[in-house]
Amino acid sequence: MTFSFRTVRFSLSKALSDSQLWAIESFPEIIQRATGYSERWALVERTKDEQSGTYTWQYQVQSLPDIDLIVDHIVHELTDAVLLSEWHSVSEDRFTFGNMKRDRPEASEPRMPEQELLSETDHPHPPLPPRGGGQGRGGAGLILLLVTWLLLSIIPVYAQNQHKDAAPANPETALVAVAKHLSPPYALYLYESLTRQILSNQRLMERLDSPQSPMATDSLWALEIISQSLLVDGQDGQYLDVRRVPPFFVDAAQRYISPSHYWPDQEITQDNRREHLAAWYSMYLMLLVANATQDEIAKTIRGGMFDRTPEQLEPGGPSLVDRLHQEKVLHDQTSSLVRINRSGPPGQENLSLPAYLEQWKAKISQAYGVKSDRPIAPG
Question: What would the pLDDT profile of 218-268 be if each residue is shown by its tens digit?
């Protein structure tokens, strides 16, 4: 029986461990209580960074845990603890905890009431007209005051609307929308595409003198992680659980394309290049299936490893991206962020990916010292 393993690292800052020395020896017991004494959690090692004074516990975890509940439990048990940072990849999660008062003093400082934060020039309401003054100018002054108040009220709203219209579309939103609509036929086609990517990289590996061999090796590692995340064990071996496909790719889009931790803009080094490759493959595979026509999907599933006639597909029907565009789930700008354009003769079509994926792939290829070739449409 084959299981998918993840590496999870928990770190305590020097300020937190100094204030709670008991936690250094008792942290494994905290994890046991947090996980319900699960046998799926195995402690690999405990280390200390002598320069920063940070203690770290590394665990090997069987399957994907409900990590948020465990993090909440750790914060609850450690007095004045706060989650300082977290980092995620397709195979590893890292969490760093600190002391709320020393690592994040701003979180414990009392805030002044909102009204006290206003300066003398800030007016939550239009200023009252001055008392007294000539009666002849009073009406005109009041009218001027009203006009000024109306302008001050309208301009911010107009500016906000202009800002909304000018705001660039977010790839994460479009990718999540696609991932949520990966129904069983699309899930089967996606796994067929994944299998073809594995075979393609295995052929590259057979050419020992190929400069692409290191990248092909890491591609197989990345594709295996994705594959194991979608498979479950049955009596006759492993099989694809189509119910796992949408949540896996929703999670991938939110982890790697979120504006708060946007991986395509991160530096890619020899140490983290295969993590980026795995994240890129997650987006690429999802867009392959989302841009295939329903006839292409039906033909592949009927003649592939699953050998079944797919239901829910319409002969001559549009791709998933086109359908979501027609149904107004995606508008013009967001659909362009998940659309693959094709060019060239049938069977040898070149694929033009969205710019952020093209640029991300080019950076990954550069980290491997190879040229970034334009993908070929799956035949």
Answer: 999 889 888 888 888 777 778 888 888 998 899 889 889 988 889 999 999
Domains in the chain, ordered, with CATH?
A: 5-105 (3.30.70), 171-368 (no CATH)
State yes or no: pLDDT of 117 exceeds 70: no
Q: Locate tokens 């867009």: which residue? A: 287
Residue 215 has a CB neighbour count (10 Å cut-off) of 21
pLDDT confidence tier of residue 112, bands split at 50, 70 and 90: very low
Per-residue pLDDT tens over the stretch 33-43: 888 778 888 99
pLDDT in tens, 296-342: 898 888 876 665 666 678 889 999 999 999 999 999 889 999 999 98
* Contact status, residue 66 vs residue 53, Cβ threshold 8 Å: no
Residue 162: φ, ψ to 5°: -65, -40
What is the C-alpha separation between 66 and 49, in angstroms, rounded?
28
97 and 81 Cβ atoms separated by less than 8 Å: yes
Q: Which amino acid is at 118?
A: L
Q: Reading across the β-sheet that carries 81-88, which strands appear in turn?
A: 41-49, 54-62, 5-12, 92-99, 81-88
Burial, 317: exposed, middle or buried (Cβ in 10 Å; 0-12, 13-18, 19+)?
Answer: middle
Helices 22-34, 67-77: axis angle to 10 degrees equals: 140
Tell me whether residue 205 is exposed, middle or buried, using C-beta atoms within 10 angstroms of its C-beta: 0 to 12, 13 to 18, 19 or more.
middle
